[in-house]
Amino acid sequence: MEFNSDHLQQRIQLVQTSDGSQTLSVDGGVEHYHSTNGAIAEALHVYIEAGLAPFAGREVNVFEVGFGTGLNAMLAYQFAVCNATRVNYTSIERYPLPLDIAEKLNYPEQVDLDREKYFDALHSAPWDSMVALDAHFSLQKVEADLVEYTPSAGIDVVFFDAFAPDLQPQLWSLQVFEKVFNAMNDGGVLVTYSSKGFVKNNLREVGFSVKRLPGPKGKRHMILAQK
Fold this sequence. Notes:
It is a single chain. With 227 residues, the protein is an alpha/beta fold. It has helices at residues 39-52, 71-82, 99-102, 107-110, 115-124, 174-183, 197-206; strands spanning 12-16, 22-26, 31-32, 60-65, 87-93, 130-134, 137-143, 155-160, 184-192, 209-214, 221-226. Strand 2 and strand 3 (31-32) form a beta hairpin.
């Protein structure tokens, strides 16, 4: 089944996950923006701990697939400041959330962050331009379809957080992974919550070395792919 994203913003509802943080449900639960077993817990486990943390202390270029709620960006921002790590963060999103929905999400409060600095600033930042939000963190949001977009070279870490591969297989295709692979630095890593067989096969076929790691709560495995 292919997920129809038309009018996505009008089809979502706020729901609470098991760690107290929230996510967004699409069409009554056909898809969720984050794990219902813990939105923040999943993001920390998959993207920050497995993806970004090994690059602490150096300048790092992050490319995120799916800005969505801004949760991954917020946690990367927090990591950058707390670890004196310069993070240049680019995130692509085909269907940006309206501000009135983002304002309802409780992520900053759940991890004791200043909401205006670490969350509201992400959502109010202009699209398609790089903005320095802190001495350690710059953000560029790109409103585009990943299938038609070619990332800029120099990527160190990829947060691959698209909707599920069963629902949007075109985003997990050889074509997309090849573009991402070609834009990455040697030694760069791609991390994702999915461990589907065809996802692993496609990553290997374009040249990644693929590892299956323990997943967050509710998932046995996740993927780390290295160039």
